Amino acid sequence: MTEDTPELIGSNHAIFVPVPIKFFKFSGTLAGTRGARFLDGFESRTLYCGQKSPTHPEETHTAMPEMHKPGAPGGDFIPEVKHTVAVSSGKGGVGKSTVAVNLALALKQRGHEVGLVDVDIYGPDVPLMMGAKGRPGMFENRIIPVEAHGIKIMSIGLLVAEREALVWRGPMIHSAVQQFLRDVLWGPLDYLVFDMPPGTGDAQLSLSQVIPLGGVVMVTTPQDVALLDVRKALAMFRKLNVPILGIVENMSYFVAPDTGARYAIFGEGGGEKVAGEFDVPLLARIPLEMDTRKGGDEGMPIAVGQPDSAQAKAFRDLAEGVVERLDSLSALKLPTIG
Ligand SMILES: Nc1ncnc2c1ncn2[C@@H]1O[C@H](COP(=O)(O)OP(=O)(O)OP(=O)(O)O)[C@@H](O)[C@H]1O
Ligand SMILES: [Mg+2]
Fold first, then answer.
1. Which residue's CA is the closest to the ligand 1 atom numbered 25?
2. Distance (Å, whole) CA 67 – CA 80
3. How far is CA 280 from the centre of its chain?
4. DSSP character for 185?
5. Are 31 and 37 in contact (CB under 8 A)?
6. What one-character DSSP code corresponds to residue 45?
7. Treating both helix axes as pointing N-terminal to C-terminal, what angle do 202-210 and 170-182 enclose, rounded to 10 degrees?
8. Atom 1 (ligand 1) nearest CA
9. Are 150 and 108 in contact (CB under 8 A)?
10. Where do the domains of the chain lie, and which CATH numbers do they carry?
11. Mean pLDDT in residue range 273-300
12. pLDDT per residue as tens digits for the range 144-169
């Protein structure tokens, strides 16, 4: 038996639960459990029993249940979610959070119900960028997400104090992410967008397995050094059978507001190049623009702060591209048996 709260599972998790695993749900009270410190203040919660798969009885490494099932993006964790989209990149600081936040808002503006999960446990920027205030509430032992600009949000940044350093190992991160899905009252959603952490290391790879992804949007800046990282990330998602929806080239160019001159600060054509190499569409080219940075810092993303701007339109076009790609990919899916 295991429990899904980081502090409880601790190091045991890594040696205890075999993969693949089946979860059997029952209720139990942990009020008397010594040393149980809950991430979210729960006093009792649902426990999960793991049963070893007879096909891999010898496997004893970190628990990472395979959640990605083609045709069922939400899996059993979030049955009311129609589509899941990750915004990722091999590289840090290229604008993943900015794209994730504005994409979520642009999807909302198209009339969809949207949620946003901040999977960046070490650098959760979504609450600040969305201007999300307050802590998540509780209802019948489930977490009520915080809402900002009409988007339901879950982030570790809403649960821990600002500037508190988190030193979590991989299994703890898995548990937190699983909890963000399973234990949050998302309600019916058309799209759940994930803001992924940078990198292609162990943590990133495992997170991609934990999250039932319908597709991934890959963000890059145009220069070669960013492309190196994005190629690695693309190859990783391909290996994990996560559909690549397309590339977003962020900070593509800068138009000087005084002269109108256009500058390719980070070089040119990188997004197109990598999209061609992987045979996926270039979904958007987003310019480097001061109000976009400001909107993120002030909790008023450009998509809602200046909905008539060219930048906001670029994000709406991106949302349209994402919707179309997800629709065409799910139309291509063959029916599965069993
Ligand atoms: N198109 C843009 N124009 C202007 N500023 C931008 C743009 N995109 C992102 N930024 C700014 O660049 C900084 C980094 O962006 P962001 O935090 O979205 O990147 P990230 O890839 O999520 O970073 P990390 O890897 O740290 O999570 C932020 O200050 C953001 O406001
Ligand atoms: Mg980020």
1. 92
2. 15
3. 20
4. -
5. no
6. E
7. 30
8. 288
9. yes
10. 17-52+68-332 (3.40.50.300)
11. 96
12. 999 999 999 999 899 887 666 667 77
What is the DSSP track for 86-153?
Answer: EEE-SSTTSSHHHHHHHHHHHHHHTT--EEEEE--SSS--HHHHHT--S--EEETTEEEPEEETTEEE
pLDDT in tens, 52-61: 333 333 333 3
Give the whole-angstrom CA distance, residue 4 versus residue 236.
26
Ramachandran assignment for 310, one of left (phi > 0), alpha (psi -120 to 50 degrees), beta (any other): alpha
The ligand whose atoms approach the alpha carbon of 89 most closely is: 1
Cis peptide before 20 (omega within 30 of 0): yes
State in Å: Cα 271 to ligand 1 middle.
Answer: 17
Give the distance (Å) from ligand 1 centre to CA of residue 97. 6
Q: 297 C-alpha to center of ligand 1: Å?
A: 10
233 DSSP assignment: H
Do the bridges between strand 44-52 and strand 21-29 make them parallel or antiparallel, or are there none, so unpaired?
antiparallel
Please give the model's pTM, rounded to 2 decimal places: 0.80
Index of the ligand 1 atom closest to the CA of residue 294: 31
Q: Helix H segments across the chain?
A: 6-9, 12-16, 96-109, 126-130, 170-182, 202-210, 224-239, 270-278, 290-297, 302-305, 310-332
Give dist(CA 48, CA 46) in Å, integer.
7
As for ligand 1, residues whose beta carbon falls within 6 Å of it are: 89, 92-98, 120, 123, 125, 198, 250-251, 286, 288-289, 292-293, 296
- Compute, in angstroms, the gap from residue 90 CA to the centroid of ligand 2: 11
Per-residue pLDDT of 35-85, as tens digits, reads 333 444 444 333 333 333 333 333 333 333 344 444 345 556 788 999 999
CB 330 within 8 A of CB 323: no
